[in-house]
Task: inverse folding
């Protein structure tokens, strides 16, 4: 058996596997604990055992045959794409949570011209999956027919839906509080003195986009005293992604907005690009807020202020809900109406893309005012 030796001073078979000392340091446990885990002995807490195995995997070691578990079943994870970094982040955490329950994840990605969601579901069912998790799928589009999910229920396949809610689908939903996300973004900008605030968000037919727009309009009326129709005129529904944010920014900047709230981090990057093409400084002249807080966003120029989607908590909740559904089915219980939505609170992360609003140009403005230094702004 190659990969790991039971003694730190004896090279593993093959001569290139990690030693116990390396694994212990990575897992932050003792070498004795590593030895007990790798030799399949009892007396180690489940969480500690998982840390040791994770350390072994990270260091490139081969798991002993005795530790290779039999899968409890396959679980499909259907995501719309992998180019937006928030989707791989969700996928990784969901797959980790499923593995912790003994299930083997099967990742399915929809590509332009590739398999549709319905086709992916058929393929997963043909392979006998135990359940399915849908991330930002057709359930999030209010114009699509929810009957496809009803049929899935009738066929006895447990499933959970993330980011999108439909009142005609009797299943567990997991969502961030999109309305609250928009409200906290507007409140932050208002505290910085911005009065002309716009929203760049995805198509209105998508539930998360509609909820963000509702929260944004409510925040403008409550915080800045605008009438509802005035607030709604500052909303731009466009395509998701950088290009969509760029297009929305062109219109909002023409309307005199000094700050833009965005439906995603990628849209926010499009807004920053549009502002710079006009010779406007971000954040000294235009403040920008994104949504998601995927891993690389803190390293953009400037680092992006954003509303963090609670990905880990949502991923864990989705897997827990699916396991509950699977167990209910195994017990022969189709269950009561499981039309439940678990809503998670987002968090505003203030970085360098928001700053106090510049005073209006004209005689009332200080003669030598040059705007705050790039990257400035309040911190919470």
Result:
């Amino acid at each position: 058996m190659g990969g790991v030796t039971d003694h730190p001073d004896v090279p593993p078979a093959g001569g290139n596997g990690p030693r116990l000392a390396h694994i212990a340091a990575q897992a932050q446990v003792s070498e004795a604990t590593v030895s007990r885990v790798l030799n399949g002995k009892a007396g180690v807490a489940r969480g500690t055992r998982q840390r040791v195995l994770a350390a072994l995997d990270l260091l490139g070691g081969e798991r002993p045959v005795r530790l290779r578990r039999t899968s409890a079943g396959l679980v499909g994870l259907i995501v719309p794409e992998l180019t937006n970094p928030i989707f791989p982040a969700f996928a990784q955490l969901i797959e980790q949570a499923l593995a912790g329950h003994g299930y083997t994840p099967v990742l399915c990605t929809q590509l332009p011209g590739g398999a549709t969601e319905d086709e992916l579901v058929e393929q997963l069912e043909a392979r006998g999956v135990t359940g399915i998790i849908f991330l930002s799928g057709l359930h999030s589009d209010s114009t699509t027919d929810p009957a496809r999910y009803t049929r899935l229920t009738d066929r006895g396949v447990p499933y959970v839906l993330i980011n999108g809610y439909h009142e005609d689908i009797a299943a567990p939903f997991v969502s961030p509080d999109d309305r609250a996300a928009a409200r906290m973004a507007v409140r932050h900008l208002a505290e910085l003195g911005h009065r002309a605030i716009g929203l760049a968000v995805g198509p209105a037919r998508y539930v998360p986009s509609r909820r963000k727009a509702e929260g944004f309009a409510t925040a403008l009326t409550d915080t800045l005293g605008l009438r509802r129709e005035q607030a709604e005129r500052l909303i731009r529904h466009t395509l998701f992604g950088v290009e969509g944010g760029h297009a929305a920014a062109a219109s909002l900047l023409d309307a005199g907005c000094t700050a833009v709230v965005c439906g995603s981090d990628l849209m926010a990057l499009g807004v920053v690009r549009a502002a710079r093409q006009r010779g406007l400084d971000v954040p000294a002249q235009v403040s920008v807020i994104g949504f998601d807080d995927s891993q690389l966003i803190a390293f953009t120029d400037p680092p992006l202020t954003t509303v963090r989607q609670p990905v880990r908590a949502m991923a864990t909740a989705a897997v827990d809900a699916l396991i509950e559904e699977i167990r209910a089915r195994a017990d022969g219980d189709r269950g009561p109406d499981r039309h439940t939505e678990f809503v998670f609170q987002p968090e505003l992360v203030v970085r360098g893309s928001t700053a106090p609003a510049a005073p209006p140009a004209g005689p009332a403005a200080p003669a030598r005012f040059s705007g705050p230094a790039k990257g400035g702004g309040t911190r919470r």
User: Anything to note?
Assistant: The longest strand covers residues 74-79.
